[in-house]
Task: inverse folding
């Protein structure tokens, strides 16, 4: 779902990151507030005032989204789930879970925490607005705080829509899961409802533009509908992938005879013999037989081409870390999540300083495609473990 991400802060042990698509959302929110919402709510102000109101409203909105996701994350961690952080992207925010809730009850509690936090924020902002008005605070600021109260109500209500993967859809899945005892069946139905809701939102957006002439509102409904449809389908496929890889170690998929290069190798030879010659996207780097890191075209391109003939690989390599090197006993589901989270399509598998192999996203996807084709008539319910 995410591309290149950058860490903004760490709050209560959770990394707050932004995807570059979030910048699009920032611009859209500020424009929507400064050009539409605030001029309609508080007329006859200078254009520059509406811009600052839009900026303050956007900051408050994103703070509210972070608190919403922190509520999910805190409850999830309390229930024993591993959550790496929170990412802000073009459609809001998402807690990064590496595993599904262990029970329907855990699913319900975690899902309900976000809307509950939004409703609490709505009440707090409403009380703050009343206090500011009583203190004769300038009207534009009071208007911004009233907006934050209203938007948190909308955020809470929208997330309660019974469409997976929204919070309401997760609550629905928890209920279906509790009823039938089958999380895959529950997810399939919740995702189908999510897809239908997404289609309805797309139609609503089109009608808003054509019938009501509301370009801004129609655009938002259309984009949100696209996101809900795509996220519903993706969430179901991710669950199938986790089920197919459950109980399998990443070492099962590794290439046990990977090509590696010496740290002394000139970069020019690396490019000619390995990147172009063997079409390798990532190559492990060894020094005195020990794994020290990896090198790819991305690291090489950061150095001037004129330096390549004499520049050794050790000067451009990416040191081994938890983001590019994993132990052989790591569950394949965690390796797949790591690839999705970091954008690395290849991981090195090592034991201590000894390179054991390399696993690629293509290897995992090929296995999943075959499993899904074999289990097409009965999508993994009751299927034996690999």
Result:
């Amino acid at each position: 779902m995410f591309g290149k991400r950058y860490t903004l802060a760490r709050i209560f042990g959770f990394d707050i990151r932004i995807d570059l698509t979030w910048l699009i959302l920032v611009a859209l929110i500020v424009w929507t507030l400064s050009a539409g919402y605030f001029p309609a709510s508080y007329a006859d102000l200078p254009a520059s005032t509406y811009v600052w109101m839009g900026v303050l409203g956007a900051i408050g909105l994103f703070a509210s989204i972070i608190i919403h996701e922190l509520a999910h994350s805190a409850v999830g961690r309390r229930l024993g789930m591993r959550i790496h952080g929170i990412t802000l992207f073009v459609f809001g925010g998402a807690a990064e879970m590496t595993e599904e809730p262990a029970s329907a009850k855990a699913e319900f509690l975690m899902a309900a925490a976000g809307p509950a936090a939004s409703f609490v924020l709505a009440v707090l902002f409403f009380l703050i607005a009343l206090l500011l008005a009583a203190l004769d605070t300038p009207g534009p600021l009071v208007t911004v705080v009233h907006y934050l109260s209203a938007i948190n109500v909308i955020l809470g209500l929208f997330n309660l829509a019974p469409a997976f993967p929204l919070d309401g859809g997760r609550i629905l899945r928890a209920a279906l899961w509790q009823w039938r005892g089958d999380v895959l069946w529950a997810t399939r139905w919740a995702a189908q409802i999510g897809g239908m809701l997404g289609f309805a939102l797309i139609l609503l957006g089109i009608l808003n533009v054509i019938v009501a002439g509301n370009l801004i509102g129609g655009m938002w409904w259309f984009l949100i509908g696209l996101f809900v449809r795509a996220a519903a389908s993706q969430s179901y496929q991710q669950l199938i992938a986790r089920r197919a890889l459950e109980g399998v170690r990443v070492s099962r998929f590794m290439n046990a005879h990977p090509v590696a290069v010496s740290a002394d190798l000139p970069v020019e030879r690396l490019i000619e013999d390995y990147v172009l010659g063997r079409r390798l996207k990532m190559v492990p780097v060894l020094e005195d037989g020990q794994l020290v890191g990896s090198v790819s075209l991305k690291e090489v391109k950061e150095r001037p081409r004129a330096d390549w003939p004499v520049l050794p690989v050790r000067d451009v390599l990416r040191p081994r870390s938890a983001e590019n090197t994993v132990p052989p006993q790591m569950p394949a589901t965690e390796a797949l999540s790591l690839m999705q989270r970091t954008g690395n399509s290849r991981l090195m598998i090592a034991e201590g300083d000894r390179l054991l192999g390399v696993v690629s996203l293509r290897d995992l996807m090929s296995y999943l495609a075959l499993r899904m084709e074999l289990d097409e008539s009965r999508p993994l319910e009751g299927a034996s473990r690999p």
Summary: Residues 43 and 50 are 10 Å apart (CA to CA). The longest strand covers residues 5-11.
